[in-house]
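4.2 Preliminary Data

To establish feasibility before requesting continued support, the project team ran the inverse folding procedure on a target of 658 residues. The structure was first converted into the token representation described in Section 3, and no sequence information of any kind was made available to the design step. The complete token record follows.
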């Protein structure tokens, strides 16, 4: 779906669909709630609404844990407009009253109830639904439907267990899918009918939004859950030997392991990227623009062996290895290279790792003699993984020490004897300092040269893969390019006309003293600027964080005097005025930061407005609901007037000037 005119500075609002509430919705935002919300956006002169993914995640509340790259989540269906729902009017009304009392979303409870009532509607009208010609044609026209529906019905039969735990049907084929569909027609049709209704409602909402002149921006995660219809049916496109994540950084010493499988890009390329092309075509039914989640993964993904728990022992894929032959030419012997990849220890060398927690029993349980020695030890093969160490019966102190011993290496295990990949923390491992000084310096030089060789590879890889995404549809393409960014990223995004992302609190020059914030005029024109995102605190929440330098930020935003201890609406307005002065083509702020302009809404604790706290699990994540109905938003005249004035000032700026 074409975005259309963007010859002026555009302004938008970001809100998860689940966070909306309307007079008709039941406990969670629904597709049709986008229509009154778009009316409010139009009233405030906003150009675009940005939402999080809305794919089916089953009972999982995180929108980034999809069990289908194509199917929508039935929880976003509005029941009242579905043919046959009037038979259950009392039950629906009772649930509406019960769920709408809650300040936050009880996702599991709502999903379970909605599926049960949808099943009642389906069963009571099965004869009519099963003879529905439009539904039949829709199933035939969308080849993803039957594999997804068969996967979903089999999961239901297995009490939602992962396909990896099923005793049968772990290796589906097109023929087996068709056979299961025919033998379980009613169960499969129930899944297809929910998707048919969901797509119809979503498309109806998008048409109404488009008619208002407002655009919808979606979110396409790069990764997909291992327990998904796509991985189950398209096994050859995914590597189950690896998990995607992020390398260590200032926020996480051991990196991140997201648990999602990585792609077999070689097989995807042989298939002419058909799975990705179809995925984008499906998205283009609903969105004028979309955000590529973790775009850096198209340059190189941090790939972690499935035997590991943290992200520490990952490597970038693709990446150029250091060749054994090159290391040997530099004078490193085979025994030395093996030592750097799988170190051995004397008891005296092990003691500092364990401090007071080392004993003969620890030595006997976790270590064995290096072959042909009596005083050198290696970790037993059965404990050569983070999973094995962490699943052992040892105390936490011993487990922590064993992990440090296990991480003590210069090169990580790579699956091939001839390719060497540096461990992320190779430069500070004790094993390195057992080498002669000359060999240490030589290794540093070799590893440094290898690191510099990766940029051309990553640039070439991204140009190839992102070119498919950028040119497959007429949707406007935006990237989430946060994290440790390769130097080639800006060039590639600019070449392909993909907008980058600038989150103000992180848009700093980290390479110079005091890491000053970039000025708004320095933001790239092809970018989306924002104050916050779903994984951060809100603007008001940021102000209350103990390690946040208010004074530096206040000066950066060109505000007068000393920064306040708490942000009030007039302060929020000044900060929004500043980011609205950016050179970015788009400014899309979370609705919570717009609410900071309201004296009424700014009384709400910022902690309650947060969408997600990465690295944590609990009911506080993915459960935020806006504090009023979308229909009532237009009644907040002072708030709306402030938003309109800010948006109009931004829109009036000459776009040809910086």
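Position-by-position output of the design step:
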């Amino acid at each position: 779906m074409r975005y259309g005119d963007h010859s002026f500075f555009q302004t938008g609002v970001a809100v998860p669909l689940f966070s909306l509430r309307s007079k008709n919705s039941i406990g969670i935002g629904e597709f049709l709630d986008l229509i009154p919300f778009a009316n409010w956006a139009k009233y405030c002169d906003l150009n675009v609404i940005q939402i999080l993914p809305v794919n089916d995640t089953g009972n999982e509340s995180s929108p980034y844990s999809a069990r289908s790259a194509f199917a929508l989540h039935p929880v976003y269906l509005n029941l009242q407009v579905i043919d046959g729902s009037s038979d259950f009017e009392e039950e629906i009304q009772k649930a509406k009253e019960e769920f709408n009392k809650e300040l936050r979303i009880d996702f599991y409870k709502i999903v379970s109830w909605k599926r049960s009532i949808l099943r009642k509607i389906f069963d009571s009208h099965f004869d009519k639904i099963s003879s529905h010609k439009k539904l039949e044609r829709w199933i035939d026209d969308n080849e993803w439907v039957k594999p997804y529906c068969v996967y979903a019905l089999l999961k239901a039969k297995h009490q939602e267990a992962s396909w990896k735990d099923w005793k049968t049907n772990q290796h589906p084929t097109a023929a087996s899918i068709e056979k299961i569909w025919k033998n379980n027609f009613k169960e499969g049709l129930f899944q297809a009918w929910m998707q048919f209704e969901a797509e119809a409602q979503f498309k109806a909402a998008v048409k109404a939004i488009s008619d208002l002149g407002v655009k919808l921006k979606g979110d396409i995660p790069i990764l997909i859950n291992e327990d998904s219809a796509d991985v189950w049916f398209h096994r050859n496109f995914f590597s189950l030997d690896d998990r995607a994540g992020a390398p260590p950084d200032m926020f996480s010493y051991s990196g991140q392991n997201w648990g999602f499988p990585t792609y077999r890009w070689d097989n995807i390329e042989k298939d002419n990227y058909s799975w990705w092309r179809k995925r984008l075509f499906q998205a283009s039914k609903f969105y004028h623009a979309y955000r590529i989640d973790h775009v850096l993964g198209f340059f190189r993904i941090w790939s972690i062996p499935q035997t590991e728990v943290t992200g520490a022992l990952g490597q970038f894929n693709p990446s150029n290895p250091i060749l054994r032959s090159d290391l040997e030419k530099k004078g490193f012997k085979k025994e030395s290279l093996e030592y750097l990849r799988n170190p051995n220890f004397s008891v005296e060398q092990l003691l500092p790792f364990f401090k007071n927690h080392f004993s003969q029993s620890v030595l006997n349980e976790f270590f064995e003699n290096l072959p042909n020695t009596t005083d050198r030890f290696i970790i037993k093969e059965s404990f050569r993984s983070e999973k094995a160490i962490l699943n052992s019966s040892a105390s936490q102190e011993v487990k922590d020490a064993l992990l440090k011993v296990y991480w003590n290496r210069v090169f990580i295990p790579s699956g091939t004897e001839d390719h060497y990949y540096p461990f992320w923390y190779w430069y500070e491992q004790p094993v390195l300092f057992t080498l002669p000084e000359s060999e240490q310096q030589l290794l540093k030089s070799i590893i440094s040269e290898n690191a510099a060789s990766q940029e051309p590879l990553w640039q070439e890889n991204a140009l190839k893969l992102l070119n498919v995404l950028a040119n497959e549809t007429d949707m406007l393409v935006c990237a989430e390019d946060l994290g440790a960014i390769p130097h080639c990223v800006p060039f590639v995004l600019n070449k392909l006309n993909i907008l980058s992302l600038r989150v103000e609190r992180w848009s700093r020059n980290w390479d110079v003293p005091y890491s000053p914030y970039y000025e708004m005029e320095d933001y790239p024109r092809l970018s989306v600027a924002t104050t916050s995102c779903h994984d951060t605190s809100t603007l008001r929440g940021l102000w209350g964080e103990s390690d946040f330098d208010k004074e530096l930020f206040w000066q950066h935003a060109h505000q007068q005097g000393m920064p306040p201890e708490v942000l009030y609406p007039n302060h929020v307005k000044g900060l929004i005025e500043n980011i609205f002065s950016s050179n970015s083509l788009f400014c899309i702020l979370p609705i919570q930061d717009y609410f900071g302009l309201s004296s009424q809404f700014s009384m709400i604790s910022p902690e309650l407005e947060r969408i997600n706290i990465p690295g944590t699990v609990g009911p506080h994540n993915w459960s935020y609901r806006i504090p009023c109905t979308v229909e009532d938003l237009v009644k907040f005249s002072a708030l709306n007037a402030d938003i309109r004035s800010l948006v109009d000032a931004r829109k009036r700026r000459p776009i040809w000037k910086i």
